Input
Amino acid sequence: MFLATRSVCACAPHTQGYTVNKVIKVIKTSLSKERKVVTGLAQAGPADKVKANRGAKCRMVEEPAEDPGGSHAPLRSPRRLRRGHVKVEYEDQAGLSFKKERWEPPDWRRQLGFIREMRSGRDAPVDQMGAEKCYDRKAPPEVMRYQVLVSLMLSSQTKDQVTAAAMERLRAHDLSVTSVLNMDENKLGKLIYPVGFWKTKVKYLKQATEMIHREYGGDIPDTPEGLVRLPGVGPKMAHLAMDIAWKRVSGIGVDTHVHRISNRLGWTRTATKNPEVTRRELEEWLPRDLWSEINWLLVGFGQQVCLPVSPLCSTCLNQNNCPSAHAVSPTRRPKPGSPLSPRDPAILLKNSEIKAETSMLQIKEEPDTIPFSVSRPGRKTEKKTRTKAACTGKRSEESRDGKNVARAQRTRTECRRR
Output
């Protein structure tokens, strides 16, 4: 900088159009620019520093070197090199670069491990009467696949026990595409009753069976898109049918249990409003090799522990790392005979027996001050008792004396009215 100033001052008398004031002005401008660059580098991030360093290198290349012969070049305004636009990997319309990070719940592996431990007994209704247990394993492959689809259609808004009973009645009448096509709607309704919305499901079964017979040659579609085209079949049924019937994993089957538990455990970015949104949220971060397992794990867990109303948080192994633990049922215990979690069931039974014995001791130690009722009678009961005693005493006195018969009759009349 000092060399440039000295050279400018030396050549100023010989150069026309340059005055001392202009030289000082140029020097001040260059100093202010350098201060701004230094301040910006101190406040900028690492990416901005890299850009500034690259720009500084370009400017350093452009500055003219000193003339070794002592001749001075005229003062020139510095040139700025224009760099071409570099395309970023992820870029929006405004030109701001961004990168989408993969999100996943912080403690989901530990939560999943505890759910596997609680479901290790495989004693939930879905394990014994789910869609995997309702079809005839000795039937031809296309008939087995059709029976799986029928069981999934009947299971909507219905308990597994009711669905399994309806499937047994249908299988007793040769459940196949041909038999359902030849079956009358009234008879089909009697066989599937009392599943939820049984009248609507009768219509869907007939329509879906006709489409399977007409468009797919008597076998169910082998793609989720084809299955969803059938009346009464949604995304959950389609993905479960692909997994159970065709042995292909196409997506996660999210029903009401999976939807509820995923939101309670915090397995979605935000609270989802319906199962389809929950399915998309889960498929974004959950490894694909767990898609087939997650449905039956969470369904059985929701049937036994994480109930829709008053969940058994006190017996759940995730009560210390679940965001929704003890929010609804802080002290509820399972009833005797209900399925317990595998964590110390004997201790739970022992505690319930101790509570029962304590309550019996409290009842025995209560003083018997009131002979006929546990709670004290109200004012109306006491008043009636006193009136009855007075009437009885008057009757006995008058019967013994035998006097004032008219008075005794009036008293009896008043007592009867009361």
User: Anything to note?
Assistant: Residues 153 and 233 are 7 Å apart (CA to CA). The chain is about 55% helix and 0% strand. The domain at 108-315 is CATH 1.10.340.30 (Endonuclease III; domain 1).
